[in-house]
Design a protein that fits this description.
Blueprint: E1 3-9, H1 18-23, E2 28-35, E3 39-40, H2 44-53, E4 57-63, H3 70-82, E5 93-95, H4 104-122, E6 127-131, H5 132-138, E7 155-158, E8 181-188, E9 197-203, H6 206-213, E10 222-225, H7 232-239, H8 243-249, E11 259-262, E12 281-284, H9 291-298, H10 302-308, E13 322-325
Parallel strand pairs: 1-2, 2-4, 4-5, 5-6, 6-7, 7-8
Antiparallel strand pairs: 1-9, 2-3, 8-9, 10-11, 12-13
Length: 327
């Protein structure tokens, strides 16, 4: 099943190096804009601008407070996003995760008011974010399942498996038949972000994600002249690429003075499909090897190899050392 990786961020993830995030393979981000009718996230503008400059598709979200006036919450959200003169590429999202002591009938009715106001303002049907528990307890009607109108909205489901493995899918709550985004971890690690971060997946290919966003995939390749001290990682970070994208465009070895082809940041879809065997492999470190080169060789990441081998210093591998290469 093809999926596309992304993240969602807020004030708690301040100080993000967005090119590194894009180079780590993330393709989209949901950014917290507001909470209730009184709070606006002070890092929204930095995250919004930084993610765009790095080439990530962006959507803004509101943390909904059921006890607060839904129209005022919608007005605050709409005004804050519009203040950027850039509404983003992905639809706005409503974060439903707290009841504030309100009964489900009131939560459902007030959420619908917010959704209608925001859809009218932006001309797009918002995304509904929630967990299976919240949807079943606080967002279901008599007889079980969501109100009929709720199925018209894309579902962003929060559900955390004890151990995520590629290819997994979340279990859908009663009455829901499809997920569009899945938040599968709230304790993820992504290069460029110092704090733990929420990890998400889009249900589809990269092309389908761009279609969902309603934008064209950018194809603006360029060139770059390698400087002394440059590495594949540093060049990838500079242009917001994955190392794999850079290597595919430049199968030759790099050296100072060499001109590299710089592919468009979204030019190589990450469909989640691979021809690599599903079982872990073993590899013996050769002279001149680095974890970066080994990761490229096997189409994986430095972080994945380090985790599979309990390596704490990614620069400290030895010739002859046998490494487990994760699938």
């Amino acid at each position: 099943m093809p999926t596309v990786p992304g993240i969602d961020v807020s004030y708690w993830n301040a100080g993000i190096d967005w090119p590194k995030v894009r180079a780590a393979g993330q393709r989209f981000v949901f950014v917290k804009a507001t909470e209730g009718d009184t709070y606006s996230d002070p890092t929204f503008d930095d995250n919004w601008i930084g993610a765009k400059s790095a080439g990530l598709l962006r959507g803004a979200y509101c943390f909904f407070r059921p006890k607060a006036d839904p129209k005022k919450q919608a007005e605050r959200f709409i005004g804050y996003v519009r203040s950027m003169n850039d509404n983003g590429e992905l639809p706005p999202a409503l974060d439903l995760e707290t009841s504030d002591g309100q009964p489900r009938e009131k939560i459902i009715a007030r959420a619908k008011i917010w959704l209608d106001e925001v859809e009218q303002a932006f001309g797009r049907k918002p995304i509904l974010y929630s967990s299976s528990y919240f949807l079943q307890v606080y967002f279901s009607v008599t007889g079980g399942g969501p109100p009929d109108w709720a199925r018209e909205y894309p579902l962003w489901l929060a559900q955390y498996p004890s151990q995520y493995t590629p290819g997994m899918s979340p279990g859908l709550p009663n009455g829901w038949f499809k997920w569009t985004f899945w938040q599968y971890s709230e304790t993820g690690k992504v290069n460029g972000i110092n704090a733990r971060v929420d990890l998400d997946l889009f249900n589809g290919t990269l092309e389908e994600l761009y279609q969902f966003a309603g934008v064209q995939m950018q194809v603006q390749p360029g060139t770059y002249t390698v400087k002394t001290g440059d590495t594949l990682q540093s060049i990838a970070n500079k242009f917001g690429l994955t190392i794999r994208e850079l290597v595919v465009a430049n199968p030759q070895l790099i050296k100072p003075g060499l001109t590299l082809n710089i592919p468009a940041a979204a030019a190589i879809p990450n469909t989640g499909e691979t021809n690599l065997p599903s079982q872990p492999r073993l590899y013996k470190v050769q002279p001149g090897d680095t974890l970066t080169l080994i990761a490229i060789k096997f189409g994986t990441t430095v972080a994945a190899i380090a985790a599979a081998n309990n390596i704490t210093n990614v620069n400290a591998i030895q010739v002859g050392q046998e490494l487990v290469i994760p699938s």
